[in-house]
Amino acid sequence: MVRRGRVADLGAVHGTTKTGVGIASMGVMRPDLAMRNIIPVVMAGVLSIYGLIVAIIQGSIDPPNGNAPKYGSYTGFVHLATGL
């Protein structure tokens, strides 16, 4: 579960960094639009929280012992679809 949460947080960090650079350059070129461009930063934070929630849900679905059914292709593709 730790890896799943880290991947979501790395994506949020990347998004926040890219939008922060955009806001900084927008503040220099058009200061009147700087506050309007905060929305992508907020969305990156929201997506990080969503990724953490999905990681917790997927972690609870994984079998806790060795006798449970293995993690199959179908379950893997379902988890991939939740992240997309």
TrEMBL record:
Belongs to the V-ATPase proteolipid subunit family. Keywords: Hydrogen ion transport, Ion transport, Membrane, Transmembrane, Transmembrane helix, Transport. PANTHER family: V-TYPE PROTON ATPASE PROTEOLIPID SUBUNIT. One of its GO terms (cellular component) is proton-transporting V-type ATPase, V0 domain. The keyword Ion transport applies. It comes from Phytophthora rubi. NCBIfam families: V_ATP_synt_C. Pfam families: ATP-synt_C. Residues 10-57 form the V-ATPase proteolipid subunit C-like domain. It is found in: Membrane. InterPro entries: ATPase_proteolipid_c-like_dom (IPR002379), ATPase_proteolipid_csu (IPR000245), ATPase_proteolipid_su_C_euk (IPR011555), F/V-ATP_Csub_sf (IPR035921). One of its GO terms (molecular function) is proton-transporting ATPase activity, rotational mechanism. The chain crosses the membrane at residues 38-61. It is a multi-pass membrane protein. This is V-ATPase proteolipid subunit C-like domain-containing protein. The keyword Transit peptide does not apply. Its main location: membrane.
